[in-house]
Amino acid sequence: MWNWAPFLRFRNGFKNGANLNINYSGSSSALGNSQITPVPNISNPVYITIGNIYLETPFTNDLWMLYSYNNKKNFSYWQVYVNGTNTNNGIVYANWFDNEGVQYNVPVNSRKGRNNVSLSAGGSSIPLNKERSLTFGLNANVSYSLSYSYQNVAQGASIDLDTFNYSDFMNEFWGNSQGSKFYSGQSGFEESKTVSTSVTTSGSIKYKTESFTGRIGGSATYTETNYSINKNANVEAWNFYTYCTIQYDTKNKFSFISDLGYRFYRGYTNWFGQPALSWNIEAYKTVKAFTFGLKVNDILNQTSSFSRNTTANYVEDTYKNIIGRHFLVSLTFNFGKMNTAKNRSATSAMFNMM
Description:
The chain is mainly beta. About 10% of the residues lie in helices and about 55% in strands. The protein has helices spanning about 35, 165-175, 180-185, 340-354; strands at about 5-15, 20-30, 45-50, 60-70, 75-90, 90-95, 105-110, 115-125, 135-150, 190-210, 210-225, 235-250, 255-265, 275-285, 290-295, 305-310, 315-320, 325-335. The two termini are about 45 Å apart. The model has no long low-confidence stretch (mean pLDDT about 90).
């Protein structure tokens, strides 16, 4: 069996501080043993998977371009990033439920390609006055996804695992080696198209003096998912986030930081998408090569996080418990001279590892 993975790259740097990068890569994905094993996997009695010996290897084409510009006069930065991905013979799962609620899944190749396109553009540290004490940043992101799956449009049959015969099952479910019964719909499956779109815009304004730094900003995200078979399942929602961060550095090397954030949502089901207000406080003291820190997280004790997962088969809104209100004490040793911003970055890295 032959395999190939082409790769092409183009780079160019311009005299005015701009850079252009274009990359293309192609790759194929190896099939997993569980996807082609002709034996039902019954490790979960209510979620049974059966391999498909006729699966073909998927191949993915990936193309991306990055254009960036660094203005050395005012230290601003701009960039545009575009990425496109196409997958042929992508693997999806044909699934159905029997009368007892048991779910069955069989991997199949999508006859139509899966496509994803994303675009992001924006700038940062853009000055609003000559002293550069007031700067702003602006970003926008757009993503589009088109995929195909196969939904059972008839009542699924139960499988008697005690008398299961793989050849008989595939003859009814798949047909010949090309999937004559499955792709024609004779075995009860219909091709479903899922289109997902996401648009995010964000911006911030920063004011900085020798001892004070303040930043306010926010973002808005719109998501939409449409299904070709059941349009009543279409969903759309808005996520909003606003925040304010202030930092004050004293002459005797004390640093005090406070950030306040507020999230709210639109378009979610009942009891989901409740607004949340978060508040964190940090304090640091530098003594020679050491920086002592105290950080109090989630003072208002917002002990849950909210997320939405959208797939070809279902939409899931989830709340997850998080650590909630807590505090951390840190001690950082500085190798060489580091300013307050770098001290904070080093401490944050340590917190993240913890």
